[in-house]
Design goal:
Elements (H helix, E strand, L loop, with lengths): L22 H9 L17 H14 L3 H8 L3 H28 L2 H29 L5
Helix pairs in contact: 1-4, 2-3, 2-4
Amino acid sequence: MLGLDGQKMSKSKGNTIELRMTADETAKLIKRAVTDSDRHITYDPANRPEVSNLVNLAALTQDRTPADVAAELGDAGGGGLKKMVTESLNEYFAPMRARRAELEADPGYLEQVLADGNARANAIAEQTLSEVRAAMQMVY
């Protein structure tokens, strides 16, 4: 999966779509995504990696094959492809974004979840360290 600029996906390059982004931020990023001048949309990763990357994003979020998505788009061009990808991604992420917003609205709950996880991790780590000390005969 390539980043939106056709290069290797990387947060530091700013070519990713993040779950915390709004629908408008996602749309803005996808509008800047790299495509080519051929109006006919095809899924051809070897010869059209940027277009195929966007077709693949739409296919993944719609639970379809990239070939089916490309066939549906036909001569829609890069604009039609980007519109479909934007709508598909925003629809796909909508429930996750809603849940994230719901959780962010209750910082006390989040702090409790983190504290509980930390306590469980510490208990497991203490048990592991006890076993290692016993195996190394370092119990004092």
